């Protein structure tokens, strides 16, 4: 358990505002949501590595007809989600376990700020799970924090390594991210690349299966 988790649990009613403030230093999740909605209005959404449910909350709130499933390897994913739980399900399972369950497919599959927490040797497998869970015509989003030589990156690395306590955190630059994605997902094409405020390190790729 990292310092962040330990401290946050002691914050009580201030935990959610504190978590939102902490995240906003690095990414504007409302801008991320706007970008996601500009790509389509998905009916079924899967988020791999959903964390406490910050992205879920925004998407479920913005899409009144959508159904959302969030999975994570952490205990109690979606713990801070404030929204319609009739349309949002959170499960503590690996992506390969969800994939093995069968044919439930999703119009939008999200992998947001997760890859740098996954050991490099396991990243391609996670991305292939994401692809396998994608419905025909669906969109896969890979959003990452790009490694750069600046103060913001030093802050992001320090926060993940020492506050969140992830000893294995490992960021790639744009070229490395694209190599990982294209090696794992040769049948998908990048249909959109975007940066998310407030920092250019927030890089987003939207991928779709090439039409035959
Ligand atoms: C920075 S949080 C992002 C949470 C959420 N996507 C968001 O943007 O608010 C990264 C999450 O990835 C999860 N994670 C790490 N490795 C994972 C894996 N192999 N499969 C699923 N989730 C994973 C962590 O437990 C953590 O909750």
Architecture overview:
This protein has 212 residues and is α/β, with parallel strands linked by helices. It has one domain (3-209): Vaccinia Virus protein VP39 (Rossmann fold, 3-Layer(aba) Sandwich). The protein contains 8 helices and 7 strands. The chain has helices at residues 3-9, 15-24, 29-38, 54-62, 95-101, 120-132, 151-163, 174-184, and strands at residues 44-48, 67-71, 88-91, 106-112, 134-145, 188-195, 202-209. Strands 3-2-1-4-5-7-6 form a 7-stranded mixed sheet, with helices on both faces. Strand 4 (106-112), helix 6 and strand 5 form a beta-alpha-beta unit. Helix 3 (29-38) crosses helix 4 and helix 6 (120-132) packs across helix 8 (174-184). The longest helix is centred in the middle third of the chain and has 13 residues, at 120-132. It is globular, with a radius of gyration of 16 Å. The mean pLDDT is 95. Bound molecules: S-adenosylmethionine.
In short:
The chain is an alpha/beta fold. The protein has eight helices and seven strands, in the order αααβαββαβαβααββ. The model has no long low-confidence stretch (mean pLDDT 95).
């Amino acid at each position: 358990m990292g310092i962040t988790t330990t401290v946050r649990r002691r914050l009580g009613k201030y935990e959610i505002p504190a978590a939102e403030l902490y995240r906003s230093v690095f990414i504007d999740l409302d801008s991320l949501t706007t970008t996601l909605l500009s790509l389509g209005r998905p009916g079924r959404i899967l988020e791999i590595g959903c964390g406490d449910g910050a992205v879920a909350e925004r998407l479920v709130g913005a899409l009144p007809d959508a159904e959302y499933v969030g999975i994570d390897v952490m205990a109690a994913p979606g713990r801070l989600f404030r929204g319609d739980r009739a349309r949002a399900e959170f499960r503590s399972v690996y992506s390969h376990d969800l994939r093995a369950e069968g044919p439930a497919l999703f119009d939008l599959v999200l992998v947001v700020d997760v890859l740098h927490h996954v050991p490099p040797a396991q990243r391609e497998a996670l991305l292939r799970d994401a692809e396998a869970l994608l419905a025909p015509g669906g969109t896969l989003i890979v959003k990452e924090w790009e490694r750069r030589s600046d103060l913001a990156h030093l802050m992001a690395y320090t926060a993940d390594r020492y506050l969140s306590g992830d000893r294995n955190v490992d960021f790639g630059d744009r070229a490395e991210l694209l190599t990982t994605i294209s090696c794992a997902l040769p049948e998908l094409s990048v249909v959109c690349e975007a940066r998310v405020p407030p920092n250019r390190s927030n890089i987003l790729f939207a991928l779709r299966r090439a039409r035959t």
